[in-house]
Write a structure and sequence with these properties.
The chain is of the alpha/beta class. The chain has helices spanning about 1-20, 40-45, 55-60, 70-75, 120-140, 150-160, 180-190, 205-215, 230-235, 250-265, 290-295, 300-305, 325-340, 345-355, 360-375, 390, 395, 405-415, 425-430, 435-445; strands at about 25-30, 35, 80-85, 90-105, 110-120, 170, 195-200, 240-245, 265, 275, 280-285, 310, 345, 380. The strands form 4 sheets. Strands 2-1-5-4-3 form a 5-stranded antiparallel β-sheet. The radius of gyration is 35 Å and the shape is elongated. It starts with a helix and ends in a 9-residue tail after the last helix. The relative contact order is 0.08.
Length: about 450
């Protein structure tokens, strides 16, 4: 009697344990019929005792292809598989099933035991994490480019397609549109991302030093060359060389650059040996290079060699939907930089920003927010009174600011900016050198306004 009581308690305990665990437990005979299942299975599929496992779990009329239970019944080896199943309510769930043989006292296989774990939510989370990871990687590749513009997203798609190639890219657009950011995005999306990204502003280096800076020089090549200098092309080996303001490179140097682009070789100033480099070249300019070719200021063969993959960045006035996004981004960044606590931008001030023509594009917008931030010190928000005077000018916001070419834009920008800024500030806003600004004034016969001082 005591033995029967102990046996009963043992079976009761085992049944309680099986009904408590979240995993489903099913016992299947050699005919593939369910002879036992625990409470977890009953909650999902109802009472399936006596039904074929393939009919109860997967609503099939015959055993599954590559059924692991049949394999277990043949050789007794444990197996694990992942498969989808349909609950009576119509939900599709993913199950991880571990199966083993059920053996009697005579060591005969009389059935199989299957442990079923619902991993649907885990798989969904894994998929979401993978998607998030891909988005984070994509965001990292387009770091610091804030946009919701369709035009810019089209450029992002183009960048992802052209990044793996080795072809030269020419990025054009007005000053301040973010050409270097796109160049970095091309580098970050390529297989060169772990290699150097070397940026050179061709307008910022004096003509007599630019060749040496790019190609390097040997000791004694010229007065002041007291030691060997490898050059920026060598510094970019295996990576990307970004030549900003390529339109400012002097004619006498254009031929040497063309040779490097065609053959991948160059020699240092004062040296006779040609050295081969593995460097991808990305260029940018706010000049109309085709006009420069017509004016014999830029070599036509070099232009075609640079313009293999053209990328045009639209000005800020053509992507006005990005202005609120960018303005608030700059506000948060500048508040951190200057330890300010301005909470936002008033809607009336935001409308003024939206209506302005932005000749200096994103760079000008950032400068505007920084100016307004300091004037609004102590206030809760940036208001209209905190904005620079040029933002509020009706003349600046009129529809007369029509642009047909980049050169046309620069000419009109100089005329407007010189009413309020000095030469250095105008050159900085337009992203050109003072020498280049002087050349443009001379070309277009633009005189400086009389200051009266």
């Amino acid at each position: 009697m005591r033995e029967e009581l102990n046996k009963f308690r043992e079976e009761e305990i085992i049944q309680s344990v099986l009904d408590t665990v979240n995993d489903g437990v099913t016992v299947i005979d050699r005919d593939l019929k369910v002879v036992y299942h625990n409470e977890s299975i009953r909650k999902k599929f109802g009472d399936i005792t006596g039904r074929y496992c393939y009919e109860a779990y997967r609503k099939r009329e015959e055993p599954c292809v590559n059924c692991q239970i049949l394999d277990v019944l043949k050789d007794g080896k444990q197996r694990k598989v992942l498969y989808d199943t349909t609950t009576p309510s119509g939900d599709i769930r993913w199950m991880e099933c571990s199966s083993g043989a059920l053996i009697d006292k005579g060591n005969e296989i009389i059935g199989a035991v299957e442990i079923v774990r619902d991993v649907t939510d885990q798989m969904r989370l894994t998929k979401e994490c993978a998607t998030l990871k891909r988005e984070m990687q994509r965001a990292a590749c387009f770091e610091n480019i804030i946009t919701q513009s369709k035009k810019m997203k089209t450029i992002f798609n183009l960048v992802e397609k052209i990044a793996p190639a080795r072809s030269t890219v020419l990025i054009t657009g007005e000053s301040g549109t973010g050409k270097e950011l796109i160049a970095r995005a091309i580098h970050n999306n390529s297989d060169r991302e772990q290699k150097p990204f070397v940026s050179v502003n061709c307008a910022a280096i004096p003509e007599n030093l630019l060749e040496s800076e790019l190609f390097g020089h040997v000791k004694g090549a010229f007065t002041g060359a007291v030691k060997n200098h490898t050059g920026l092309i060598a510094a970019a080996e295996g990576g990307t060389l970004f030549l900003d303001e390529i339109g400012e490179i002097p004619l006498k140097l254009q031929g040497k650059l063309l040779r490097f682009l065609q053959e991948g070789t160059c020699r240092r100033v004062g040296d006779t040996a040609q050295v081969k480099f593995n460097v991808r070249v990305v260029c940018a300019t706010n000049r109309d290079l085709e006009e420069a070719v017509r004016d014999n200021l830029f070599r036509e063969d070099l232009f075609f060699r640079l313009n293999v993959i053209p990328v045009f960045l639209p000005p800020l006035r053509e992507r006005r939907e990005d202005i609120p996004l960018l303005a608030n981004h700059f506000l948060q960044k500048l508040c951190d930089t200057h330890n300010k606590k301005i909470s936002g931008i008033e809607s009336t001030a935001l409308k003024k920003l939206m209506d302005y023509s932005w000749p200096g594009n994103i760079r000008e917008l950032e400068n505007c927010i920084e100016y307004s931030l300091h004037l609004a010190d102590g206030d809760a928000n940036i208001g209209v009174s905190h904005l620079p005077a040029r933002i509020l000018s009706k003349e600046e916001n009129s529809d007369n600011f029509k642009i047909s070419t980049i050169e046309d834009y620069i000419k009109k920008s100089i005329l407007k900016l010189q009413k309020e800024y000095n030469e250095e500030q105008i050159a900085e806003t337009l992203g050109i050198s003072r020498k280049n600004l002087w050349e443009k004034r001379k070309k277009w016969d633009i005189t400086k306004p009389f200051s009266g001082k």
